Each structure stands twice: as C-alpha cells, then as structure tokens.
Amino acid sequence: MAMEMEACFAHLVERWTDQVVVTSAGNASEMWWKLTGETERVFYLEASMSLASLFAAGIAYGIPRANVWAFSGDGAFLMNPGMLTVERRLGLPNLTHFLVDNGVYGATFEVGMADAGETDYAALARACGLRNVFRFGTLGDLRDGMDEVERVNGEAFVVLDVEPLGGALPDPPMDGPECKFRFGRYLERTYGVRIFDARV
Amino acid sequence: MAGPDREVAAAIAEQAAQSGIELVASLPDGWIAALIEAFEADARFDHIPVNREESAIGLCSGAFFGGKGSLALMGASGLMTCIYAITKINYTYMVPMTIFITMRGRLGDRAKFHVSNGLYLEPVMQSIDLPYTVIERRDRLGEIRRAVAHARTISRPVVVGFTRDLLYGESP
Cβ contacts of residue B55 below 8 Å, gap of 6+? Predict the structure, then answer.
C-alpha cells in the first residue's frame, strides 16, 4: 500500500512545530515548498544525491536542542545506504530521517529505479542496527504512528510508502547562498549558535 | 617497515584543535592511520568513522550550520570521489570546510595503484578551483590553522595535503 504523496506530506506539515527541516533533491523539496512556502526553517538541499540526512545529522550534532527532520528520496538513498551505519554511530536523539519511497526517480520524469521499488528499506535500517524504525503505507498508520515516532529515545528512521507524484512541481525559488543565509540566520536567532561570525 | 609517525599525528591533531575543529569525520588511508587514532583518542574531538568519503562531506557541511568546526579526513582517492559533493553542496551553497588528504602518488609512494593520484589529483583540484596547500615538513604545520581560517573567509572548502615523508616522520 502507498499513500498519495501530497496527503502524506500535508499530514507531516500539520504536525510540524519547531523542527528544522532538510529536504533532498526532487519531489521532497518541491512538495515541502508547495505546502509551506517556508524560506527560513527549511534547507532545500536540492544538490545532494544521498547526503541530505547526513547534512541534517551535522546540524543535529551541532545543536542538540534542535529537533531536525531530514527527508531523503529513495533514489538518493539507494546511492548510499551505508549512510545508516554512520547515523547509527552518531545516535542522535534529535534526528528523524524520513525516507520517501515511491520507487521512481521523481526529479527525472519518474524513471524507474534499479530495485523496481522492491527494496525493504525498513528491514535494511534494522539490519544496520537502527532501533527506532517505522514504516507507514497509509495515512491512518501515519497519523497513528507519528506520536510514537516523536516519543522514541534515539534517532528515528521512518519509511513513507507513497505513490509517484505523476508530474513535477516548481522548485523552491532560492539560489544556494540565499538558502544558506536565510536558514543559518534562523538557526543563529533561534538557538543562539554562532555560524557566520564564528572565529575558528 | 615503520608505520605512520604518532608524534606527527599528535602535532597535526594539536593544530586542528587550535583551529577550532571539534568534529572529525574520517575514512582511512594507510598513511593517516596514526592520525585517525590520534583524533579518536583525543577528548577534544568527536571522531566519526564514515562509510564513504562523500558522507564526510555531507556531515561536515551540516555541522557548519550547527556552529561546529569540522574536518573531513581521507586519502587522495577519497577526495577524488567527492567532486560531486563538493561542487554541488559546498560550492552551490557556499559552505566552508576543511579537508585533510594524503598526497598519494608522489615520489616515494611505492603503491602502483596510486599512480593515478600522482598524475591527476592536483590537476583535478585545480580544475574545480579547489584551494589546497601541501605540507611536507613539520615546521609548516601551522599552515593548518591558516587553511581552516581561509575556508571560512572564502566560504568554500580548503584542502590540506600531507606527504608520506611528513606522516611517516621522515621529513626534515
């Protein structure tokens, strides 16, 4: 079973409170932008190819008070599934890694993936030693399960089974430096962390 | 045959600490085995072994936004696998980072499989305008602090390359 992607993301947006969000290339960035129009609390890491969750992990590591949501597409994830071993090693309790599993490369006209959508990412995560692994294929399960996702002690890895979008959405209309400074200034203002004026 | 020199490794780690580095993400090359041990044993650092070098680029790029000084430590071959990540993440979003590498393939490296690094490592870095400095002697380790600061100044990664003679304690 799989959810409509927009409905799935709409539910997550409803639950979105103070979390810092990092989205990966393609549908995840586009959909989050469509639903939120947010320009500060979100880093649209559109040039990432498998590194969005580790980028998010770096933020979570640096700011333990910040709750960080990371979105990976399954195409990106499959390029570097070993990332999970690093995430397990980091063991960040303030990181939630959502894997958007639609079985296609959403950023490139939904060309099919090598695994034809057959990979059990939740099982893969468990095999890598992650303890808090969830998989949701219906909106009802997602609604019922998110409380538990937010309660767990340790990083949560959440597979979202969604249908292919069926078309492209507009990209967030920000260049890299604008995204960097909007996001970074938000973190500085909100968490008191020194990013741009740090003297190292 | 003697391995990498622990005193040199400790001196490099000291420079990194003085530069504000707190997080070290590494994937090994034989030449930096002692350096990885030095970071692992030093309480001033959080050392995270990564599954591949690109993961270090992603993690350290995020750590910048967490306000943490970070360092990606890898071999020359590892850097060659990171061109996409560096140009897409660090260049697109102007994220500074310090990357330590080995200068494989130079005179004195007997590993035939590193011939390609001797031929192409520096030209590749030059071709993407990736600033780098090569440290061959202990009395130049202060260059590390300048490299870390320079990355912040230019909002891009800066590479510090270490030679075999330095890492094996055989340099002047």
Answer: A51, A54, A80, A82, A83, A86, B25
